[in-house]
Amino acid sequence: MTGAESGTGGTGHLPRRGALAVLLAATFMGILDVLIVNVAAPSIQRDLRAGFSDIQLVISGYVLAYAVGLTTGGRLGGAYGHKRVFVAGLLAFAVMSTACAAAPGVDVLIALRIGQGLAAALMLPQVLALIETVFPPEERPRALARYGATLGLGAIAGQLLGGLLIDLDVLGLGWRSVFLVNVPVGLAAAACAAVLLPPSRPGPRHRPDLAGLLLTAIAMTLLIYPLVRGGAGGWPPWIWPSFAGSVLALAALWRVEQRCARSGGAPLVRPALLRERGFGLGLAVVVAFYSGNYGLFLLLAYVFQDGMHLSPLGSGTAFLPLGVGFATASMAGRRLVARYGRNVLVAGAAVMAAGYLVLIVTLLPGPVPTAPLAALAMAPALLLAGAGGGLVAAPLVGSILATVPAEEAGAGSAVLLTVNQVAISLGVAVFGTLFVALLGTDPQDAAASVSVTDFTDALIGCSWFLMVLAVVTGLLIRCLPRRAR
Predict the structure, then answer these.
(1) What is the pTM of this model?
(2) Which structural domain, as residue segments, surrounds residue 214?
């Protein structure tokens, strides 16, 4: 076995900065495509003559496919080599991005976004494994810090870059440019990865848990799809059997995973892990936190563009206080936790709840006469909510994993990342549906027929629920056990 194959020993001659740049470029693309489509959503809806529920599926389809494929993507990297699967994921992501940009209709776009999410599930799980391979132990903390900063930067840049690309309207591409921007980055990153990353030796190949993968996909689809389509269709009778089917699929998944674990296989979710009280509470924290945060992104895009009639770039700029607060607090969060412990996360949830309360108070009298000033008036509340979210997000995974035995940390991390993405998809479905119900019509129809006050009133209604979720997040964090049993 060569040094490169065995880990960090043979990577000293490699340009590590270039290798890290490739890995961070892939990370940036992945997080960008969760958020950049939010600011493009009103433009996509107008151009493709789609309904709001279609746009919810464009966003949640990507996230849900990524969630379902995440664990399997990581295992494929271990079985066939992280570098090989990473490059394949980059190329697939570039191809699917090109296809998304060329989508002739919204149904095709939804299907292609699911494919793009699966490509992300091949690409992104390899990043941390490759950082472990490229960097010796003494250099890994700095590389991981840059990885974390990239996640924060993607959260800020997604809205702003999306708005800029749509406003520039290069070659008349409009919203399609938010997908095409991935293509040169993905192809260049794949070419550089082939040269700069060390070869990774394939590991043992376990039989994939196809039954678990299929049941997870069925359960999540039967839950998310009726949540999105039900409101638009007046909650028809078929949605209730769909919800029941989701519960049955989850029950079947539990049985299948238990059987797989007993037979010595590699289940998607280790049943023993879910029996850990602290870990179960941790998953509830993740759902409460991420469903609210990412649900807000979609609502704000429509309030800013269809309600206040800001341009896509103006909308992206109005998001900046939220992103800056999140990124700044994220960078400080880890250091504060080292000093003050889990109380920092509880304080972050309280700050987040306060931010939503300030947003409600700001909007209750009705917006100021001009839209730019209305968006500016919301900035302090968004900055506060973003800062609170950043204090929770940065140390959250570490705090939850501290409640499980060390030997379960790897499996626990994969489950947390999966539930994180499911929560994002759930938030888009639930808060999007609630927003339309409070608005009384599709946001695109409302843009021409109702006032900006109707949009802000709908946002106020959603903000009450967001504030409750923030409080629940803090209470659940307080209930987490301090250490693994």
Answers:
(1) 0.85
(2) 210-267
